[in-house]
């Protein structure tokens, strides 16, 4: 029999048991900036549409918030919520159907771009008529289709609208767990709101993508000055080039900071031409270029420019050429090589009217120099007016400027990057536009 002292001690231990045996806290974070660490109540991975709908219904009954994430590239806080039921969609990655006559492929929203491309290429085999994607986001491939749709992304198209132009339809799970089909002819208002709606209108369950005929392309590369960029883009578009961008020098010590860059564009060639792409960069090559961008930005641009010039005239397929290397653990790898305090990159994309591009880049260079901000990577692309989505970021044809700013993980470091981003946004607002919510 327990003594009174033993009974009290045992009772006290039982009172502490919930703390001793409590579930470990669940934390999630974004991949790129690693500055959105958030505690969630649960992290769930549904594998079927039915499981997804039941999670939503259960959370709704309990009055619990839901957050949705795929590959966790977004940095604006829209993919996580404190103490939410966080749904990871990456296991919802099957191909539902592929209409090879019309070029329509339906996939679950958690599928990532490389798997989508492999799936339709395998399905088509040696067919004479081949379909491929028109565009995807640049810089990384491991985005889910649902995330890309919710952000209304765009690629390197010289005369393309955002991704909404390539969406035939999608199904959405609403707050009651009900599946709703959305297209231009069915629930059109929800179609226009959910594309670019960052998940606010429901969970994207499946996506039907409009493919386009695959084409063979030839790369044309030049080193040019930003002052000539609007004219050069116009010339390439007039000459029927399909894709292109301008990757600018990020050496703040150079008089050509943000002014000189690698101008790469892609023109269609005859189908009978062979695909010749002998030179390409691998993960180790990209990591070395990234190391140089941290330590010797002049040398980084020289090496990058020389490589791209050496690929002038190479040929590619229009879809697989859009795949690109991305190192999700880049920040850790860089610290292992060069040391230093914990840091990462914060990315944003800013839009200005195309004629204003040279002046904007000149003023941006002055701003970033004065703030002593280090730019690790930057590029310029084009976008056509989006006349479909409810919250359209491409309200007119714009030049799109991407900045990746090196950011120390300290309050002062984060504020320094925020100050530079605010300055860049102010420069764009003065020209009638601002930024893209990453």
Number of strands: 20
Corresponding CATH architecture of the largest domain = 2-Layer Sandwich
Overall mean pLDDT stands at 92
Tally of structural domains:
3
Class per helix and strand makeup: alpha+beta
Supply the CATH class of the largest domain.
Answer: Alpha Beta
Largest sheet: 8 strands, antiparallel
Distance between the termini: 65 Å
Q: Name the quaternary structure.
A: single chain
Uncertain regions: pLDDT < 50 for 5+ in a row?
A: 6-22
For the biggest β-sheet, the strand order reads: 16-13-15-14-18-19-17-20
Describe the structure.
The structure is a single chain. The chain has 438 residues and is an alpha+beta fold. It has three domains: 4-88, Uridine Diphospho-n-acetylenolpyruvylglucosamine Reductase, domain 2; 95-213, Uridine Diphospho-n-acetylenolpyruvylglucosamine Reductase, domain 3; 216-318 and 329-436, Alpha-Beta Plaits (2-Layer Sandwich), CATH 3.30.70.2520. It is built from eleven helices and 20 strands. The chain has helices spanning 4-20, 49-62, 113-124, 145-151, 188-194, 229-238, 283-295, 297-310, 330-338, 357-370, 411-429, and strands at 26-28, 38-40, 42-44, 66-69, 85-88, 95-99, 104-108, 131-132, 167-173, 179-183, 203-210, 212-213, 216-225, 243-248, 260-268, 315-317, 343-353, 375-383, 398-408, 435-436. The strands form five sheets. The protein has an eight-stranded antiparallel beta sheet with strand order 16-13-15-14-18-19-17-20, sandwiched between helices. The chain has a five-stranded antiparallel beta sheet with strand order 6-7-11-9-10. The protein has a three-stranded parallel beta sheet with strand order 3-5-4, with helices on one face. Strand 6 (95-99) and strand 7 (104-108) form a beta hairpin. Helix 10 (357-370) packs antiparallel against helix 11. The longest helix has 19 residues, at 411-429. The termini are far apart.
């Amino acid at each position: 029999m327990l003594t009174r002292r033993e009974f009290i001690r045992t009772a006290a231990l039982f009172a502490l048991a919930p703390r001793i045996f409590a579930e470990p806290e669940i934390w999630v974070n974004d991949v790129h900036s690693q500055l959105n660490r958030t505690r969630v109540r649960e992290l769930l991975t549904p594998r079927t549409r039915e499981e997804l709908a039941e999670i939503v219904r259960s959370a709704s009954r309990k009055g619990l918030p839901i957050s949705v994430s795929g590959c966790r590239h977004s940095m604006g806080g829209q993919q996580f919520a404190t103490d939410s039921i966080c749904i990871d969609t990456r296991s919802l990655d099957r191909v539902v159907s592929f209409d090879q006559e019309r070029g329509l492929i339906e996939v679950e929203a958690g599928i990532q771009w490389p798997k989508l491309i492999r799936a339709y290429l395998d399905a088509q085999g040696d067919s004479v008529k081949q379909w491929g994607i028109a565009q995807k986001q640049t810089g990384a491939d491991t985005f889910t289709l649902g995330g890309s749709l919710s952000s209304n992304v765009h690629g390197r198209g010289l005369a393309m609208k955002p991704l909404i132009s390539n969406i035939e339809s999608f199904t959405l799970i609403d707050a009651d767990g009900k599946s709703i089909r959305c297209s231009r002819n069915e629930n059109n208002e929800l179609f226009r709101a959910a594309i670019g709606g960052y998940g606010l209108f429901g969970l994207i369950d499946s996506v039907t993508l409009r493919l386009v005929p695959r084409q063979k392309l030839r790369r044309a590369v030049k080193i040019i000055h930003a002052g000539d960029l609007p004219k050069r883009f116009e010339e390439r578009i007039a000459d029927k080039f399909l894709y292109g961008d301008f990757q600018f020098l990020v050496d703040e010590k150079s008089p050509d900071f943000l002014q000189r860059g690698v101008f790469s564009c892609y023109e269609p060639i005859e189908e009978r031409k062979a695909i010749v792409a002998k030179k390409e960069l691998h993960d180790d090559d990209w990591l070395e270029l990234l190391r140089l961008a941290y330590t010797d930005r002049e040398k980084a641009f020289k090496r990058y420019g020389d490589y791209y010039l050496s690929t002038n005239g190479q040929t590619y397929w229009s879809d697989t050429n859009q795949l690109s290397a991305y190192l999700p653990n880049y920040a850790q790898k860089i610290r292992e090589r060069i040391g230093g305090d914990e840091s990462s990159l914060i990315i944003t994309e800013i839009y200005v009217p195309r004629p204003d591009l040279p002046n904007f880049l000149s003023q941006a260079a002055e701003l970033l120099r004065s703030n002593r901000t280090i730019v690790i990577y930057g590029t310029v692309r084009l976008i056509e007016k989006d006349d479909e989505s409810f919250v359209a970021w491409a309200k007119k044809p714009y030049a799109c400027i991407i900045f990746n700013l090196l950011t120390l993980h300290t309050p002062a470091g984060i504020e320094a990057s925020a100050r530079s981003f605010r300055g860049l946004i102010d420069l764009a607002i003065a020209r009638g536009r601002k930024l893209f919510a990453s």
